[in-house]
Amino acid sequence: MKGSGFTIDLSPLKAKLKVVESSGFKRAVAQAAAQAALNQVGIAFETQGAHYGKAWAPRAASTTAALSARKRKKNGKLGKARTPKPLLVSTGTLKKSFFVDGSGGDAVAVATPVPYAKYHEYGTKKMPSRPVMPIDPQGNPRGGKVEAAIKRAMETAAKQALGMK
């Protein structure tokens, strides 16, 4: 009795494996993840941290009073009281400063050049932390929404790189 056989052509799989192992693929997926993380930073500002599962602590009463106090101008006249803006958005500098840093080869990161960002992120003795970054210091996503958004972006980038739908 003769055995019957069949042939499986693995060349398409080998080609896809080659793509997955390439630095271009890794960079594209990492770039997509970082862009998704950057989008999460924007959502954190919009939701005042609630997107990460816990809203940021409100301003201290003394800070709110100081912001809304009418201040004397140089000419001695009273100026207008300021209406406090949303947390961490006094001038908008911090909010606008976040970017995707792709200078690490296959690895990319969300970064900010603003030196005081770390005080808001981690807090101080006198100020509670108000996390902006979507990944905590241990490298874990800050909640299921963040993790899902980053995974979705990575999967989409991977499928595009592999020519899948």
What features would you describe in this structure?
The protein is elongated and about 105 Å long. Helix 2 runs antiparallel to helix 6. It has a two-stranded antiparallel sheet with strand order 1-2. It has six helices and two strands, in the order H-H-H-H-E-E-H-H. Helix content is 44%, strand content 7%. By secondary structure, the protein is mainly alpha-helical. The mean pLDDT is 85. The longest helix is centred in the first third of the chain and has 25 residues. The protein has a domain of 115 residues. The two termini are 45 Å apart. A hairpin with a 2-residue loop joins strand 1 and strand 2.
Could you estimate the helical fraction of the residues in percent? 40-55%
Query: Strand order within the widest sheet?
Result: 1-2
Which regions are unreliable across 5 or more consecutive residues at pLDDT < 50?
A: none
Shape: elongated
Order of helices and strands: HHHHEEHH
Strand content: 5-15%
Mean pLDDT: 85
Q: Could you tell me the number of beta strands?
A: 2
Given helix and strand content, the structural type is mainly alpha
Distance between the termini: 45 Å
The biggest sheet amounts to:
2 strands, antiparallel
Compute the number of helices.
Answer: 6
Features:
two-stranded antiparallel ribbon, 165 residues, 6 helices, mainly alpha
